Amino acid sequence: MTFWKALGSTGPIKGADEVEDDSLYDFKTTSEFSLHVVSDASGMLKVEKVSSPPFEKTMLKTEDCFILDVGSEIFVWVGKGCTKQEKLSSMFYAQQFLLDSGRPDWIPITRLVQGAETPIFKSQFYNWKEENASDGQDYAAYERGNIAPTKQQKAVDLGTLVSPRGIQKENINIHKEGKVTIWRIENFKHALIPKEQYGVFYSGDSYIVLFEHHRLKPITFYWLGRDSSPDEKGAATLLIKEIVEDSKHIRVAQGKEPRGFLNLFDGKCIFKLGGVSGYKRLLKNGANRTTFLYHVKGTCAEDTRAVEVEPLSRNLNSADCFVLNDSINKILYIWYGKGSETIEQKHAKICAQFIIKVEDLQQAEIKEFHEDQEPHEFWDLLGGKTEYLNFPELQHNVKEPRLYHCSNSSGTFQVEELYNWSQEDLMMDDIFILDIFSCVFVWVGPESNDIEKKMSYETALAFVEKAAELDGRPRDTKVVRVLPGCEPALFTCWFQGWKSGSGDAYERNLALLKEAQANTQAIVDVREALQEIVLPEGTTFPYAVLCRRPLPNQGKGFDMSRLEYYLTDDEFFVVFNMTKGEWEKCREWKKMEIKKKLALF
């Protein structure tokens, strides 16, 4: 009777044939599920609905991010080839989805990286089939027990990271005998540019580059300048179909040009500041510009390029070559840094000759000299001789720098080497290790978590130990942590065309860091940084402290999954009624149950 009283009355009970079938209810619920794509392929960031159920795995494209809304949970799927803007914006839009729907704010939003999808996510897709991981990571490795499955952490393969790397393979088939045609985007239309200008790209413009070969499917590159407007970038994407109906489309962001793209120009490729219409050689005071400086950098003929920088002596770098164009006197100066490679010196000559051609500098003179042998007029053209990047590390036996991406967004900590990298690769929610042989930098994004920080610091230290065995560098090679916005010159000089001025996306992100980093030293030894997030071994606290929140120092340095181990052996026995050795033999679910009762989680 208590049961019926709680319900209000015994009332008539409907039969099964009088109510809707459970499957119909399920259909009504799942019909509200949706899959959305977050993409900036058009030049502007857009969020568009892709499908309602049923969902198929083929809908997920590696070059974009996707938001899957299944009512009780929202998933953000991050493709391996997505852009930085897509990655950063996808979580914001997922939160907006939740806010607009009026659902409780405790509805979980789960971020997943391609190749590391959870069983719950996979179950939302019809006939999801696993593929063999192409990057050598075992994403199917789980530790089974009476608790929810957790991924098993694998040791970082330091030997592979330190060993000489091979050339990154590209799925771009380019033949020298093919035909190349280039259009520049002007007023939402594609304008054919003269062949004499092929290989010249302006950072304020966007281009369409068509490669045709009688035995291959056409390839259409749409090159997007760093300072090109969103409208121009979007137009470049849309206008491709007007040029050729059936071709392979490849998006190329400035600074991320693949070798196949650069091969089209046979080593004659320069990237200028501004746009064609805005590149009228004007200084800030309105005077005509007459001096232009190009930074030549690369490791081989296929990836060496010339990028225009401000004509100031501070922009010189002993590790590379530079070409200075004095357009008034028709003189081109080639400056060979002490640490520059032979291939860079050769390409600097090609670049100078190409500039003479495209700038129509008939009978121009080329003057070549090595660092410390500069004529006085060279410095005069650069506004006078000032300090520049001429550290010993940049002058002798210069090693090719290598950049590694560290993240645990897939559920386990992974380290991946990046190829053809640029400043745009430095994402605020992850950590990067830059190895320049004489020093190892650990660049820490402010949105990275403590686990990533701890494991990245430990990996960098172990990296140096392993490298000392394999390449002979000193075991006491410096390993330092750097924070965004405070990068030293020895760090930034390896990023061609590094931008630190106001207005770019990187600088805008730094505005968010000022308060958080106010009392944090920007450049410190990694061992000191490690102490900030890991308590010294053997540190103990009484139970009365560990069960309260907040923990001392806001919990920094505490391993929240092992709080019980900060108890002394004697107090551990008093609190748990067992020794630490006996505790180790307990099942994980039992440990969690006890720790919840004791508020140690």
Automatic annotation (TrEMBL):
InterPro entries: ADF-H/Gelsolin-like_dom_sf (IPR029006), Gelsolin-like_dom (IPR007123), Villin/Gelsolin (IPR007122), Villin_headpiece (IPR003128), Villin_headpiece_dom_sf (IPR036886). GO terms for cellular component: actin cytoskeleton; cytoplasm. SUPFAM superfamilies: Actin depolymerizing proteins, VHP, Villin headpiece domain. CDD domains: gelsolin_S3_like, gelsolin_S5_like, gelsolin_S6_like. One of its GO terms (biological process) is actin polymerization or depolymerization. Keywords: Repeat. Residues 535-601 form the HP domain. One of its GO terms (molecular function) is actin filament binding. SMART domains: GEL, VHP. PANTHER family: PROTEIN FLIGHTLESS-1 HOMOLOG, VILLIN. This is HP domain-containing protein.
